[in-house]
């Protein structure tokens, strides 16, 4: 019985750690700068809780970030209403904008897209 519980617990921990490989995290300038400097694949989504398009994007992004081919990608979630310096830096004027970086440089962006296939294609540009 204890062996079964231990196996179940270890299985859950393994699943949780595997899912954690793909990183979705709140935006902070130091982590963002570090990721870009290191040339890691990065995307930033400008999210607003009051935005219906952002609410539609969120579960799609979570689902896509859980896929194994995105485990190296870091997705920063920036609050559209409070991250004005980042918005200015990247020239973002609308919520629900996703900006993708590869090797420290912007390679793609999209605003208002909620289609899984289109967002998947956009995020894949971080790894090319």
What does this structure look like?
The chain is of the alpha/beta class and 128 residues long. 45% of the residues lie in helices and 23% in strands. It has one domain (22-127): 3-Layer(aba) Sandwich (Glutaredoxin), CATH 3.40.30.10. The protein has helices at residues 2-19, 29-37, 52-65, 84-90, 116-124, and strands spanning 23-26, 42-47, 74-79, 97-102, 105-111.
Set out the fold topology:
Blueprint: H1 2-19, E1 23-26, H2 29-37, E2 42-47, H3 52-65, E3 74-79, H4 84-90, E4 97-102, E5 105-111, H5 116-124
Parallel strand pairs: 1-3, 2-3
Antiparallel strand pairs: 2-4, 4-5
Features of the shown structure:
5-stranded mixed beta sheet; Glutaredoxin; alpha/beta; 5 helices; disordered N terminus; 23% strand; 5 strands; 128 residues; globular
Summarize the structure.
The chain has five helices and five strands. The chain is of the alpha/beta class and 128 residues long. The protein has a single domain (22-127), classed as Glutaredoxin (3-Layer(aba) Sandwich), CATH 3.40.30.10.
Describe the largest sheet: 5 strands, mixed
Total beta strand runs? 5
Low confidence ranges: 3-20
How large is the share of residues in beta strands? 15-25%
Give, in spatial order, the strands making up the sheet with the most strands: 1-3-2-4-5
Which fold name fills CATH's third level, the topology? Glutaredoxin
Briefly note the structural class of the backbone: alpha/beta
Question: What is the arithmetic mean of pLDDT?
Answer: 87
The number of distinct structural domains comes to 1
Q: What CATH architecture would you give?
A: 3-Layer(aba) Sandwich
CATH superfamily: Glutaredoxin
End-to-end C-alpha gap: 48 Å
Helix and strand succession?
A: HEHEHEHEEH
Number of helices: 5
Give the C-alpha Rg.
Answer: 16 Å
What does the overall shape look like? globular
Quick one: CATH class? Answer: Alpha Beta
Helix content: 40-55%
